[in-house]
């Protein structure tokens, strides 16, 4: 700026600067205005609507599920596995070395405490969509007697941890709490 | 571009020509358009594809009059079309099989382009617009396949939308935008219907650009050499309107076989089971035309890399004009490249087969080999061959090459041959 001409027919350089500022300010104001006021609403309308978001929690009564049995419920319209694990299944899962796992999680990290604070190891609650491309795996199947996804061949163990195949992570354990001994609330 | 030969005949066409020369444009593009005189039947798929697009749009608009894009009614409304709507079965079978026929034609069209080097200068933009059309076709086909809301529709949508979740950081927000819910759900179906209606018109728009980009340099041809004089060309009408017309009739016969005698052979019986979000069918596969890419996806044991390679396998076509270093367009004159090309066709077919099988054992091994060859063809073989291969001599002109062929046919004494002198006098009759 120091070298710009300050006199002569081109006019005062202060004037030019002010005009530049106006152009830039108008441009920035216009672009942000359009981005925030026009573009974002047109994109955000695609996100889950309020009635869909309202389906955030689900209470499930566990008392009817016998040992070794599994039910599938829906939460946020997604299938969720709730499995009453046998002692043998828990033992198998606990015996696995962390080094053998692709997504390292202990069996204890896969279960949640009951109202008395003790881990409810017999209850395994997981989203039923394979972490690869979302198919629902088949229970009590696969090389590790956990879950097997028929779509692209992912094998999960009895804690729902990925052991073999293309899935990148363990089956997802959603947020849930025990309301009492036999009721959980997911979400 | 060539000089316009349009002469408005009546008072009205003269009046219109001065105000909006649309008839002149049509005349110069599709009647007196100079076209290389040696085009073979592999060059008829452009016309066939235009017809496919028209068929899909017309049947699609009609189906939309009877279809209900809601998770609770979609499956039933499709059955309503099949059983209750007058001629609904015909219109739906034409639309469903039309998608397959569209892809059959586009694959032959693309392999034609690959073989005769139609993607090379000065036709790079033409080729890239074609790849855009192909991408839009795949989007339209996928979106459309979701609409009947059967088991394959639902789980196909689940798998494809989950591909996006593999993208780091933005993957899951994108997935939420696609779903409009926490999973594939009614909002997903609703917006897929809206987009499925939109995409064909986008295709139609790009087709216009594609034809524009074709008419600037003119057609490539089986010899891959430029048109040098008027003797190298014939007018589009009647020579190629008739040739395209004949090819369309043959193609429609094949189309009719599927529609009337085997309408479900290209589909999956699982899609006649209503969508069930709690149970995935034992064996889910996409439609046949997407199988090679599905095979590439599953050939990689890593989720993100599988998705990356699958998209790369299509996007690589955009840079093909710059990957192939050979100046000779047609593989007719490239003996080594020709062999690699046929291997490439086989690799694509093998990938297609492997994509339909369970991803283990032999199909998995073949899918991996096919994937390696697919990428090697574009990234290694074509760039290197242009440098090390010695092409055969290319003819001076299309006209001379055609004359020579006619003369050889005459000497060979085949039944259809005419005296060499006659051929020399009226060469354009002897294509």
Compile the SSE list and pairings.
The complex is a heterodimer of chains A (about 190) and B (about 425).
Chain A: H1 13-44, H2 50-53, E1 58-61, E2 70-75, E3 78-84, H3 87-95, E4 123-127, E5 138-141, E6 146-149, E7 154-156, E8 162-164, E9 176-180, E10 183-186
Chain B: H1 11-19, H2 22-30, E1 34-36, H3 45-64, H4 74-83, H5 88-115, H6 124-146, H7 151-165, H8 171-179, H9 186-215, E2 233-235, H10 236-261, H11 291-299, H12 303-323, H13 335-355, H14 361-388, H15 398-411, H16 420-425
Helix pairs in contact in B: 3-5, 3-9, 3-10, 4-5, 5-6, 5-10, 6-7, 6-9, 6-12, 7-8, 11-12, 11-13, 11-14, 12-14, 13-14
Number of helices of chain A: 3
Q: From the alpha carbons, calculate the radius of gyration of chain A and give it in angstroms.
A: 28 Å
What string gives the helices and strands of chain B in order? HHEHHHHHHHEHHHHHHH
Oligomer: heterodimer
| Helix-strand topology string of chain A | HHEEEHEEEEEEE
Number of strands of chain A: 10
The largest sheet of chain A is: 4 strands, antiparallel
Low-confidence stretches of chain B: 415-431
Sum up the overall morphology of chain A in one term. Answer: elongated
**In whole angstroms, how far apart are the ends of chain A?**
60 Å
Mind explaining what this structure looks like?
The complex is a heterodimer of chains A (187) and B (431). Helices cover 24% and strands 24% of the residues of chain A. Chain A contains three helices and ten strands; from the N terminus they run H-H-E-E-E-H-E-E-E-E-E-E-E. In chain A, the strands form three sheets. In chain A, strands 5-6-7-8 form a four-stranded antiparallel beta sheet, with no helix packed on it. A three-stranded antiparallel beta sheet of chain A has the order 1-10-9, with no helix packed on it. Chain A has a three-stranded antiparallel beta sheet with strand order 2-3-4, with no helix packed on it. In chain A, strand 2 and strand 3 form a beta hairpin. The longest helix of chain A is centred in the N-terminal third of the chain and has 32 residues. The radius of gyration of chain A is 28 Å and the shape is elongated. The mean pLDDT of chain A is 86. The C terminus of chain B is likely disordered. In chain B, helix 3 packs across helix 10, helix 4 packs across helix 5 and helix 11 crosses helix 14. Chain B has 431 residues and is mainly α. At the A-B interface, loops of A face helix 7, helix 8 and helix 12 of B.
């Amino acid at each position: 700026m120091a070298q710009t001409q300050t006199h002569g027919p081109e006019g005062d350089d202060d004037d030019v600067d002010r005009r530049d500022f106006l152009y830039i300010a108008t441009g920035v104001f216009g672009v942000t205005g359009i981005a925030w006021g026009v573009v974002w609403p047109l994109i955000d309308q695609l996100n889950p609507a309020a009635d869909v978001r309202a389906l955030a929690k689900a209470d499930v009564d566990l008392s009817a599920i016998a040992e070794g049995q599994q039910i599938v419920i829906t939460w946020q319209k997604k299938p969720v596995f709730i499995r009453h694990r046998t002692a043998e299944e828990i033992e198998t899962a606990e015996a696995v070395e962390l080094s053998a796992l692709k997504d390292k999680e202990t069996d204890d990290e896969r279960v949640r405490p009951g109202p008395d604070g003790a881990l409810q190891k017999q209850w395994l609650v997981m989203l039923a969509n394979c972490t690869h491309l979302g198919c629902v795996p088949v229970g009590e199947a696969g090389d590790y007697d956990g879950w097997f996804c028929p779509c692209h061949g992912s094998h999960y163990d009895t804690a729902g941890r990925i052991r073999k195949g293309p899935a990148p992570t363990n089956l997802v354990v959603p947020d849930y709490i025990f309301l009492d001994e036999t009721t959980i609330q997911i979400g | 571009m060539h000089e316009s030969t349009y002469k408005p005949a009546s008072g009205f066409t003269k009046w219109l020509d001065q105000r909006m020369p649309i008839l002149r444009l049509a005349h110069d593009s599709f009647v007196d358009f100079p076209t290389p005189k040696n085009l073979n039947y592999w060059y008829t798929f452009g016309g066939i594809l235009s017809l496919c697009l028209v068929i899909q749009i017309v049947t699609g608009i009609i189906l939309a009059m009877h279809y209900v894009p809601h998770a609770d009614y979609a499956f039933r409304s499709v059955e309503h079309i099949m059983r209750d709507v007058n001629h609904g079965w015909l219109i739906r079978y034409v639309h469903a099989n039309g998608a397959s026929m569209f892809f059959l034609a586009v694959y032959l069209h693309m392999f034609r382009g690959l073989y005769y080097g139609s993607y090379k200068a000065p036709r790079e933009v033409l080729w890239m617009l074609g790849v855009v059309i192909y991408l839009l076709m795949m989007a339209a086909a996928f979106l459309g396949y979701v609409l009947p809301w059967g088991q394959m529709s639902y789980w196909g949508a689940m798998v494809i939308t989950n591909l996006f979740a593999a993208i780091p950081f933005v993957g899951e927000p994108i997935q939420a935008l696609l779903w409009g819910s926490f999973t594939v759900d009614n909002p997903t179906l609703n917006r897929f219907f809206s987009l499925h209606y939109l995409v064909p018109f986008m295709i139609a728009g790009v087709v216009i650009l594609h034809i524009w980009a074709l008419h600037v340099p003119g057609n490539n041809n089986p010899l891959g050499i430029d048109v040098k004089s008027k003797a190298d060309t014939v007018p589009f009408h009647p020579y190629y309107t008739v040739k395209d017309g004949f090819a369309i009739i043959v193609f429609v016969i094949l189309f009719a076989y599927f529609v009337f005698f085997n309408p479900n052979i290209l589909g999956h019986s699982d899609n006649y089971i209503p969508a069930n979000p709690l149970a995935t069918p034992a064996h889910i596969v996409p439609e046949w035309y997407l199988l090679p890419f599905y095979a590439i996806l599953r050939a990689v044991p890593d989720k993100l890399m599988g998705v990356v390679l699958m998209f790369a396998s299509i996007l690589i076509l955009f840079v093909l004009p710059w990957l192939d270093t050979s100046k000779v367009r047609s593989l007719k004159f490239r003996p080594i490249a020709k062999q690699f090309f046929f291997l490439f066709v086989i690799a694509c077919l093998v990938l297609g087969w492997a994509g339909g099988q369970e991803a283990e054992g032999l199909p998995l091994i073949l899918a991996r080999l096919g994937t390696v060859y697919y990428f090697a063809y574009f990234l290694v073989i074509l760039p290197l061959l242009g440098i090390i291969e010695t092409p055969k001599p290319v003819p001076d002109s299309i006209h001379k090459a055609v004359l020579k062929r006619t003369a050889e046919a005459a000497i060979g004494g085949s039944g259809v041959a005419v005296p060499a002198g006659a051929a020399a006098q009226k060469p354009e009759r002897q294509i």
